[in-house]
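Can't attach files on this board, so I'm pasting raw text. These are the components:
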Amino acid sequence: MTMAVSQTLAQASDLAFEAALAGYVAALVCYGIEFALGRRIVPTEAEAASVSARSKAGGVAVLTREGGGYGVVPAAPAKAPWSERWGRAAVVVTVIGVLANLASVVLRGFAVQRLPLGNMYEFSSFLCAAAVVVWLVVLRKIGNRSLGLFVMLPVVLLTFVAGSVLYVPAGEVKAALNSYWKWIHVTTIATSSSVLLVSGAASLMYVLRHRYERRAAEAPVASSRPGEQVAAAGDRSMLAKLPSLAVLDRVAYRTAIIAFPIFTFAIISGAMWAEAAWGRPWNWDPKEIGAFVSWVCYACYLHARATAGWRGVRAAWISVIGFATIIFNLFFVNMVVSGLHSYAGL
Amino acid sequence: MASTTSDVDPGRLGGGPSLPQRPGPVRSVLAFLRNLWRRLTSMRTALVLLFLLALASLPGALLPQRSLNRVETAQFILDNPTWGPWLDRLGFFAVFASPWYAAVYLLLFISLIGCLLPRTWDFVGQLRAVPVATPRNLSRLPLHHSSTVDGGPDEVAQRVYTALTGSSGRRWRAVQRTEADGAQTISAERGYLRELGNLVFHISLLGVLLSVAGGKLFGYEGSVIVANGDGFCSVNSTSYNDFRPGLTIDGTELNPFCLNLKGFDTDYTADGLPIEFRAHIEYQHGADAGGDTWNDTTLRVNEPLRVGGERIYLLGHGFAPHFEVTFPGGQVRQYSQPFIPDSSDPNFLSEGTIKITDPPGVTGDEIRKQQLAITGLFAPTAVVHGSLMQSSFPRADDPGVAIDVYRGDLGMEGGKPQSVFSVDQAQIDKGALVKQTRANLMAGESVTLDDGTKITFTGYSEWVSLQTSYDPAQLWLLISAVLLLLGLTVSLSIKRRRVWFRMRPADGASGSRTVVEVGGLARTDQAGYGEEFTELAALAATPVAGTQKGR
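---
Top answer:
Structure tokens for the assembled complex are below.
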């Protein structure tokens, strides 16, 4: 029983994907401009502890609570500064992009009459859509848009690679993948990987921010009056605009603890599928090993966060390594190493 | 290394510096072991071992592994003559069976057990203990709140206690105490399930390890090729082409079952992509085996047959070309052998050999000069480019063979094993086996050798490869995995929280107003406690005056 592939729906899906790519690129540019232009810096904990801070422009210093960290803003201007406008535009374009991406996934599913996760192109497309959805949820919680730059960068890369190198026309999927298990195993792997993408981005930002704070602690910015620290956007490095360490750690941790049980479930369901298809739940196939290595890395991360002396930047590094293994597993293992999983349609 | 306990002479306590006495040898050894154990079961060691486990698994993914692909491994060693054999000696081509990998995970599990036992004991103690006494200075806690409310201290305390421990929503474990100066305090704690989930998760890891070990000990796997129309019975290890027993299995006491292959069909798209394979079989097992009752079923790629404790899988399929050979003496014989499909060709171009070790009409030493081998390729839908035969579709719409015919000594008398699918190259090199002709034949065509032997390609039949798997520990593996997931989810989602209330009569009021101080401490992660804390602080009823300090 062969199923016809609807060409109109497939073309619509491809168009939507290209729109999504355009949206993501535009969003990346907007986040970047906002980051470069923005003057809302987030002081380090040492600075936040000092009572007063004033901006170089001479505006009134306002200690606002911004998602758990403190932000110092210049005197409130009559209308929103340019950076704010670029930031809002970035969010709008992100939403448009993710809606287009989701549309492309759904249309592709209808075009091929099956779950649209049968090859690397479809998988990457789904991963990007899910990661951006997670990012939008995180944005709602923390309010600081600079994480968007770090999330959109891998998303744009992934979307571009998916559309150019990995693209295969809408078609059938091999017999071995024709099972209800793919709804359970492949979707959960994709979902947990996308949440971990956001976690990895947050951890990377944590590492950068930590480096900045350490340097700021060693050489504090010169102040005109003794006992006060000048919080001037122009004097600081870009990294001063990143959210505080506490916020970044919380984002990275919370996303990791949501993704980790889903990831564990995905591995277990993969083993159950392997038992039904290949005879054995665990075959030490390269992709299984890759998933195992990622799992151990994140277990390491959770352990590190519970161990004195390992909580801060060391745990963040482990999280970054864990995310690197996920990307490695997704691409390198599929494309270079051959194993039982090597029918990803590449 | 931490210092060992030293015996200080009590008489010297008030005096000058005392010389610590050197502990005896037994004590040193015991102290060393104890410290080693503490090191091994510490979190830091667990981190290092986890990292090592991940690192040690990487070669298993990057280098070819013998258990997955023997041919590729051998090829890799050939391609890398300098460090290939060294890697092999160090076990890098069988990483997960190597001693150094086993060392890492065994150490990890010893560390885990060593940490679990005291922690389980502690947990039991925690379950039976009451929440700790209220700290003296609640304003030092990360979350604190102070207000004045209506009602006497006892009344307020009762109100808070009922709200905390009541069945409607909040389920804190609370205890009410009265302090020396008459203040009422309530200590409450919740989130014990978190530690339970944590322990269940880690114990399930042990369960997983034990189940895997059980499978390796008591399970077996066997693969067999069954031609369409044929069958096989699983009785002992010789029933299979390839038998992989567990460590305690000798292959003699297998659960018996029999199986006949009645038909095999495939569905392909127009592009040759396989959609479904179906093997129609009838089987009987256990007490029925060998009898007359058969059960019908269909095997598909993701649907094995589960019978008794065994599972029978449809792994793959292929073709077996049929040849009819007319010998010079007039005798006609039919030959057929399964040909192996090339795994890199989606169109099932297969290769194999038909070895005719007993040509009719030949006796004695002459046999070793007259043995025939028909070796080459089978294409289900043959296309010939120049003189090269390839297959353009995986279904046998237009089968063809491209064969070389050899005559001579096949080399099977010597006892040296050779592949079923190819002739022994050494015999060809020696000149003992000589190529007679090469031909591309479609169905019905034939080729004649110089002595009159006529070889006709008459047709084909299909075969399936089946795998029998038996693993009595598999159910335990599943149970361990499910418990692991449950424990993990519980341990990550439940938050361990503590809250204390202190109620004092408000100064100046005659027992009708109370100053309520609330303090909160999150034992795991501060995140999110703020909102819940505000709700808890409001339990003491609406405050009268706006004397609220703190977060």
